[in-house]
Each structure stands twice: as structure tokens, then as C-alpha cells.
Amino acid sequence: MADTQAKDGYFYTEKHEWVKVEGDVALIGITDFAQNALGDIVFIDLPKPGKQIKAKDSLGTIESVKAAEDLYSPISGEVVETNGSLGSNPQSVNAEPFDTWMVKLKNIQTSELSGLLSAAQYKEYVSKLD
Predict the structure, then answer these.
(1) pLDDT for 2-29, tens place per residue?
(2) Which among 25, 54, 106, 123 counts the fewest CB atoms within 10 Å?
């Protein structure tokens, strides 16, 4: 299994979102598996800062040449920032899915991280999908 499937230090959902906690902020994006399944990403719609999000709520949508999919938040918190460069360069998610965050949350519920998959668990999950 390629190391691009999951990175240590991140938490994962079965819907292929990732969350990485840096201090008191959580960065959220999609996995390599998700961007690969979507194909060339052409548009990403994200919430405005200040929006309160609960775990498993929709964070917006991501559109590719193949499909449009909802993005879901792995954990609860308040949107503090969205990645503004995605408006003009959404395909950066295809190029570097683990380095291209979409949303930053503050006031996060770190207790919810225990319900997410570790890198090893996510790799195992994805290996059963192939």
C-alpha cells in the first residue's frame, strides 16, 4: 500500500476526510483516495468563517469533472478560516491532498478524535475498498 494513502499524525473518516490538529486549531481536507476517486477537481464551495459545525455536518461541496460530493466535518468546531487559494486553484487538492487543507476549525471537540480512524486503521479500511 502506498504511503500516500494515509499519513501519521492525521485522523480519518470512512468518507475520506482527514483532520490534523495543530495546537488548538484543526485543519480539514480530503485524502489521496478521495481526490483520486473524484478525478480532476474544478470547484470547492466552503463555509464562511464564524459558522459553527458539528461532527458529520456538511462543510460544503467539492466538484470534479466526474461528480459533485458533499464534504463532511470529522469533528465539531467553529470555522475560523477557509483556504482562499482553492477558489483559483482547486486542483491543488489533486496534487497534494495532505498538504492542501480546506477549512480550519477552532473551539474543537478533541474528544471526538477518538471516534476517528488512525493512519493504520484508514490504510486497512481503504485496502478493503480496492
Answers:
(1) 456 899 999 999 999 999 999 999 999 9
(2) 54
